[in-house]
Design brief:
257 residues, alpha+beta, OB fold (Dihydrolipoamide Acetyltransferase, E2P), five-stranded mixed β-barrel, 3 helices, 12 strands, Secreted protein, signal
Length: 257
Amino acid sequence: MDIHRRSSCRLLAGVLVAGSLAAGGAHAAGKGGAQPAPAAPAAAQVAPVFDMSPLPVTTGLMTQYILSPAGQLSGMLLADGTQVFFSHDLGEQLPAIARPGEQVSVNGLKGIGHPIVRAYAVTGPRGRRIADVRPPATAPMPLDSPSIGPDVPVDGTILAPLYDMQGGVQGVIMRDHSVVYVGEKNASRLVAWLKPGATLHAIGTGVTGDHGTAINAREIGPDVNQAIHVEPADAPPPGAFPGSAGYDVIPGGSSGD
């Protein structure tokens, strides 16, 4: 009985010593051992190349974002009807500084004869400012556009024509804030259907979500019964289809003569 008692005591002492050593090792590791990895430094903000302050300033209440059919923010509509367009970089940053229903201030070039502004800097209602950090391009870069995808229907009343950065009409903005792209050729051909106040039915590939709805119309008309087929604004140019005999033939080249 005495031997059994002494063995149990020795076993208990060993457990206590092992636990003490483990706790000491953990404490040492916490003090001088491996430390948590430091947080990565925030990326330095790139300064704009140009001084935007001399540019005309347009101030107004933003009523909606203007989306491309791929869901990119390509512009915004102000309460007075002004359409503000900007680069892809500014579009990605805009929701962080301003939302529909808020006041914005825009440094940019105003259109002549059209209610449009090409923005180079935008200031939101809380004083945050975003600006282009690269020199202005001689021509706007094309926006991504889905040639395939789910059909999105749009039905309602037209609020205003949708302009592009050159002042051409490329579609319409609806009163429910949907954006319908048809391309300049279709817009000039269907001008009687695209007047503010007219009803419109359209269907095409595009997006619908938190920032709004935008489509490339494939069918369009005053209503579903009068809708006609149109070539979408992002339709590829005519030519031989991939894999056909004439697909690799370059017009005017030696092999195509």
